[in-house]
Write a structure and sequence with these properties.
Layout: H1 11-24, H2 29-40, H3 44-50, H4 57-62, E1 77-78, E2 81-82, H5 89-105, H6 110-113
Antiparallel strand pairs: 1-2
Length: about 120
């Protein structure tokens, strides 16, 4: 059976993994929600509602209401890949989200994570 693309995976399953990653490092779901809202333009209520929907992770990014223009400031490596060098726009958004949660988990202050 071929591996399932991250774009086709359910938002709820991928997001739960991101939350778990942050919580293992003493960060909160609220902080992950804040980062996600900053990046995508969704409200925290919308994000919570997606946890009980069948929305795919790819569609979560494709339908983002106001993707943050400051996302271009997200640089560095995630999973050995330089985020700013990713050519596929959808994969770049997925990796930017990974990078933000990774920075949270590493203890970076929220102001810096949100590029303020």
């Amino acid at each position: 059976m071929p591996a399932k693309s991250v774009f086709d995976m359910s938002f709820a399953s991928v997001y739960a993994a991101l939350i778990n990653k942050a919580e293992r490092k003493n960060r909160t779901r609220s902080e992950v929600d804040e980062v996600t809202a900053w990046l995508t333009g969704y409200t925290q209520e919308q994000i919570a509602a997606f946890m009980t929907s069948d929305l795919s992770y790819g569609d979560f990014f494709r339908q983002a209401p106001a993707y943050n223009p400051l996302s271009e400031r997200i640089t560095g490596k995630i999973c050995g890949i330089q985020v700013e060098m990713i050519e596929d726009p959808l994969m770049k958004k997925v990796r930017q989200m990974d990078k933000l949660v990774d920075e949270l988990a590493k203890g970076r202050p929220m102001q810096k994570v949100l590029r303020r």
